[in-house]
Amino acid sequence: MKQLNLQKSGIIVLIAMSFVLGIIVGPLNAAEPKYKDFPVPQECLDAVKKEGSKLYVYNWAEWWPQELFDNFSKEFGVDVIFDYYSDTEEMVAKFKLNPKSEYDIVLGASPANAMVLRPMGVVTNLNYDWLPNITEYMIEGYTKRTFDPGNKYQIPDSGYSTLWCYNSKYVDDTVPGFNTWKFLFENEKYAGRITMLDNMYSVVGAALKSLGYSWNSDVESELMEAKALLLKQKPRVMAYDSMPRRTWVEEDAWVSETWDGDAWLVHHEDLPELKAVLPEEGTFVAASTDFIPTGAKHPAAAHLFLNYIFRPEVNVFLISTIGYPPTHKHTMEFMSDEMKAWPGFILPEGYMEKCESEEERAITGKGKELRLEIWAELKR
């Protein structure tokens, strides 16, 4: 999934200091609102001690700030042990081999991952008696997703959307039809300077959307049109790369399909000329989610951690660091005006009606089989 090397020298310390001083997240509004931390019940804390005060975390490498885990461990006396995956396909494959893998919590998954794993008995239901901060602060829209109404078995920790970005030093953004998916697929001017995500669903979905079809289509004729469009584009693509930070910063790639937060961080930290386009046709909007596997030996500690990251000040720190839209209803209030204005972070009125999220028809059965065929030929 989405990730960048966020732990380069000094960045985490800078962000933490900047929050305290009001630099990155911007000054608090005049009233300086204070939002309550709803502690988990004593029953959960007692269960954490009974389990042995440990938490085995399975997460993207170099994704969430280490300080967040250190502070949690210091406050609650829980020893946090890490294992990492390089992409979510690797994570899913591990659970397919051993559905009872003894991780206590998986961070940074996608709803599609949990949708695939749940029928295999990998994902457990959540105990909301132990999650008062989430009950209070989750943005309502994230509780009504079709993949898990009410978030019974996974917690959206941040949102994301698929869009494309460009280097404004080299790309003319005044041409007709610029703010569309069609521009990404049909222009020839920037051949050899284009990257696409190394993600089957994102690439095929964007092609479908540019043709006026559903991102999740499982109609063979529509998918074959998308295939033809992608094969026509292929000679102009320099790489299928989900982490093209280096090629952006070194100005090798000028136009890239990407995720909103990855582009934002590069724009904010290294390359102000990097700008983003929220395509007129609509796009894919989803969430990074966390779940507790059924093989967890420390489920109370996992609930304690989930409640902790929805503590208001902790969530502000998390979102400021990873650079993705919050699912906490108050966190965006503390972000800078520049971040609020970034495409995808606050969607324009009415835009969500043109967007889609994960649907089972795209990730299982015929929809998945046809996408695998397209992807195999595209990567050949």
Name given to the CATH homologous superfamily of the largest domain: Periplasmic binding protein-like II
Cα separation of the termini: 22 Å
Number of strands: 9
CATH architecture level-2 label of the largest domain: 3-Layer(aba) Sandwich
CATH class of the largest domain: Alpha Beta
Q: Do you know the CATH topology of the largest domain? A: D-Maltodextrin-Binding Protein, domain 2
The tally of structural domains comes to 2
C-alpha geometry? globular
Main sheet overview:
9 strands, mixed
Number of contiguous helices:
16
Strand content of the residues, in percent? 5-15%
Element order: H for helix, E for strand: HHEHEHEHHEHEHHEHEHEEHHHHH
Taking pLDDT < 50 over at least 5 consecutive residues as the criterion, the unreliable ranges are 1-33
What is the helical fraction, as a range of percent?
A: 25-40%
Return the structural class. alpha/beta
Condensed summary:
With 380 residues, the protein is an alpha/beta fold.
What is the topological layout?
Elements: H1 11-21, H2 42-51, E1 54-60, H3 66-76, E2 79-85, H4 88-97, E3 105-109, H5 111-117, H6 132-137, E4 155-167, H7 181-186, E5 194-196, H8 200-210, H9 220-233, E6 237-240, H10 245-249, E7 255-259, H11 260-269, E8 274-277, E9 285-291, H12 299-309, H13 312-322, H14 337-340, H15 360-363, H16 365-378
Parallel strand pairs: 1-2, 1-3, 5-6, 5-7
Antiparallel strand pairs: 3-9, 4-7, 4-8, 4-9
Helix pairs in contact: 1-13, 2-12, 8-9, 9-16
Description:
- This protein has two domains: 11-159 and 286-340, Periplasmic binding protein-like II (D-Maltodextrin-Binding Protein, domain 2); 161-284 and 352-378, D-Maltodextrin-Binding Protein, domain 2 (3-Layer(aba) Sandwich).
- It is 38% helix and 14% strand.
- The chain has helices at residues 11-21, 42-51, 66-76, 88-97, 111-117, 132-137, 181-186, 200-210, 220-233, 245-249, 260-269, 299-309, 312-322, 337-340, 360-363, 365-378, and strands spanning 54-60, 79-85, 105-109, 155-167, 194-196, 237-240, 255-259, 274-277, 285-291.
- The relative contact order is 0.19.
- Strands 1, 2, 3, 4, 5, 6, 7, 8 and 9 form a nine-stranded mixed sheet that branches.
- Helix 3 links the parallel strand 1 (54-60) and strand 2 (79-85).
- The longest helix has 14 residues, at 220-233.
- Mean pLDDT is 90; it is low at 1-33.
- It is built from 16 helices and nine strands.
- The chain has 380 residues and is of the alpha/beta class.
- Helix 1 (11-21) packs across helix 13.
